[in-house]
Amino acid sequence: MSHKLQVGEMKVEYLTDKEIWGHFNYIFSPKSKNSTTYKFVLIKSILENLYNVNEKLELTYDLLYSSFSKIYWNLVIHHNLNQINMIGKKAEVQKILLVIQDKYMIPNTYVFDKLSDELQIEIITMVKKKAKLNVMGAIYGDTDSTIYDFDNKKETIKINPSYYSFMQRFQKVLTYLTNYHLALFLEKFNQKGDITNLLMKVENVSKRSSLNEFYLLLSSFYNDKCFYCGKEIKKKGSIHVDHFIPWSFVQTDQLWNLVISCSSCNLAKNDKLAVEQYLDSLIDRNLELTKDLLVNQRLDMKVYTAKKLIELYNYSKENGFTDIWTPQKKIQLQLEKLKEK
To answer: Containing domain of residue 130, as a range?
Structure first.
């Protein structure tokens, strides 16, 4: 009955990689009781928030269940996918979302980030309340009480340092495994719903339909100049908001990882890491951003540190992002300046 626990304390702090793999293999195996998609979505939510923990490796339920609610809404409402292993039945969180959809007459075409801020908060609050009863203790039990401390009253988890390091080093593999097993579950227990290209839908279920809110925050700071090549971008349609660490790795949108880019640089960079000098530039940029009191109150900026960004950059290389990109326009400008001298 570990899934009904209200408080859980991790039994040990240090585990070997082999022991942790064993726990994840158990979660993904038929031995684990996965009657709903809760465990898979919770793992995805933790992976999305690895860099939103504080210095004690604590993560608030508000951040955790913001991701959880977004993923669930897009699966249940946008893709019309059942989340329980019984045809004709519905998972508790699924019921909540369907009631909200009916209450506000929201069409299926609306992904989570298209909803108003007020409605998103309402959904997150209701999902969080229900998930406390059914979700937090489940993975805790499957890992023999080792993955995290959790406290439903304080609404925080504290990730085991061994698991935290493991998830950083194997983030890409764990994301693929979680997406794959989530897609298998959904395919097995959905006769209806949008199951075409299901794995692709699961992989992109956290992706925003628009980064315009970040553009509004960043455009004045950059004066519409490309972060990479420095070129002034005269047409708004040519302005892109780019994930400095590729979205395919972080699968979340954090202000401290977003920059203004021209279309040429954005398309050329694509799914690559920029050369390390731009990491230093982004650290300097974020330092300037934190001087703005309103920006500094954002949840993603409250937990940001330069150390986290450097770790993320290095771990992305460890996870296979080894194709390093340098903007050609920047090189051309540097060569032209040298010729002038």
So the answer is: 2-203
